[in-house]
């Protein structure tokens, strides 16, 4: 029983809704792309350099 709860509440993704619903499900329902914070900062920085 302990293993079951451990597996159930294990965070698979650093963002709470994505951890429980799944990345593809959240992306589909919200119509957006889920990225980690580090990658997001790199994308923003690249856009600023190109502008």
Give the topology:
Layout: H1 2-8, H2 16-21, H3 23-30, H4 37-50
Structure description:
The structure is a single chain. This protein has 51 residues and is mainly α. The chain has one domain (2-50). The chain is 69% helix and 0% strand. The protein is built from four helices and no strands. It is elongated, with a radius of gyration of 15 Å. The model has no long low-confidence stretch (mean pLDDT 77).
Overall strand count = 0
Relative strand content:
under 5%
Structural class: mainly alpha
Q: Number of helical runs?
A: 4
In whole angstroms, how far apart are the ends?
Answer: 55 Å
Query: What global shape is seen?
Result: elongated
Give a quick precis of the structure.
The chain contains four helices and no strands. The protein has 51 residues and is an all-alpha fold.
